[in-house]
Design brief:
By secondary structure, the protein is of the alpha+beta class. The protein has twelve helices and nine strands. The protein folds into two domains: about 90 residues, Phosphorylase Kinase, domain 1; about 200 residues, Transferase(Phosphotransferase), domain 1 (Orthogonal Bundle). The chain has a five-stranded antiparallel β-sheet, covered by helices on one side. A hairpin with a 5-residue loop joins β4 and β5.
């Protein structure tokens, strides 16, 4: 067990983000002579098997991800007094949430988005899905580089079904529609949450707001987001289209993977149109709830009967035409018969 001194004057807050289950402190590793972030599971949760599993999973998930944009875990274990802890890299620049007091410069947002996308790409390739991507979990170095932290509710891709009753399903403001509905969660869910992060960084506000978490969660499922350009005109149409594509309701309408997202971010950074995202209007329509499409289809069906009824009148008109022709022919035939009879009566042979 490493020798670590905790400086209680420098609490780094409750960074796990799930009901304040852990406390994080700035500490110093005396053996390696370096500052570290020390995350300690709260004592009231130490006997809760689910919370302990969650804590262990975070340590193992992060320890397996050796990437420059992922906060590494150095060590984890249980102290003599029975408290679970882990030591991580101390990232001194705070969180992205601390920076988002208003819209950030779009070029800065693109740079951060590229780094987070690359971290998620690496995690997804290792079969790890974060499931709680948000600005609070994106730490910044003094140089401004992004590092993704808190894989506390990350799960292997082979076991990605979450339950609506689970306390570990994520944060309401950044929750993907499939997470909100308790459906299977995959890499596309992390990309949706990253889309919310980019939207917030570009505009200084979330795409949805509500008075309580349940109502906020439902807005992710049912409500159409407005374009980030409405809140910040400095956002280009291409960057707005990229963000709105990430917010598509259906996972298959988002980017196929984090690599494709990174490629489009690079293109937009250099003034090129995105290769995957379509126009701002098209991507905003994809972000619309499926119910809107169903209503439009209903309207189309409703106007079809008058058009479909026209052919039904044509046979009726044809039958009247045939009736008139038959009457004319019958009268002509009767006239010929009468003329023939008259001619026979006037014949000298009669």
């Amino acid at each position: 067990m490493p020798r670590i001194l905790i400086d209680n004057r420098y609490s780094l807050g409750d960074l796990l983000g799930i009901g304040g289950t852990a406390e994080v402190y700035l500490a110093h590793d005396e053996i390696l002579d370096r500052d570290v972030a020390l995350k300690v599971l709260r004592s009231q949760h130490a006997e809760n098997e689910e919370f302990v599993k969650l804590f262990r999973r975070e340590a193992r998930s992060a320890a397996a991800l050796n990437h420059p944009n992922v906060v590494p875990v150095y060590y984890w274990g249980r102290s003599e007094d029975g408290r679970y802890y882990m030591t991580m890299e101390y990232v001194s620049g705070g969180t992205l949430k601390d920076r988002v007091g208003g819209p950030l410069d779009p070029s800065t947002v693109i740079g951060l988005g590229l780094q987070v996308a690359d971290a998620l790409r690496f995690a997804h390739e290792q079969g790890v899905i974060h499931r709680d991507v948000k600005p609070h979990n994106i730490l910044l170095t003094e140089a401004g580089d992004a590092k993704v932290a808190d894989f506390g509710i990350a799960r292997a891709a082979a076991a990605t079904t979450t339950s609506q009753s689970s306390p570990f399903m994520g944060t309401a403001g950044y929750l993907s529609p499939e997470q909100a509905k308790g459906e299977s969660v995959g890499p596309a869910s992390d990309l949706y949450s990253l889309g919310v992060v980019l939207y917030e960084a570009l505009t200084g506000e979330l795409p949805y707001s509500a008075e309580d978490p349940v109502a906020l969660t439902m807005k992710h499922v049912h409500e159409l987001p407005r374009s980030p350009r409405e809140a910040n005109p400095e956002v280009s149409k291409d960057l707005a289209a990229l963000a709105l594509k990430l917010l598509a309701k259906r996972p298959e309408d988002r980017y196929p993977n984090a690599s494709a997202l990174a490629e489009d971010l690079e293109r937009v950074r250099y003034g090129l149109p995105p290769a995957v995202a379509a126009s701002e209007e098209t991507t905003q329509n994809m972000a619309a709830p499926l119910l809107l499409g169903q209503e439009n289809q209903t309207r189309k069906i409703a106007v079809q009967p008058p058009v479909a009824s026209r052919p039904a009148r044509e046979p009726e008109h044809g039958r009247r035409s045939y009736g008139r022709l038959f009457a004319v022919l019958a009268a002509l035939l009767l006239g010929l018969v009468l003329l023939g009879g008259l001619g026979w009566a006037l014949s000298p042979n009669f």
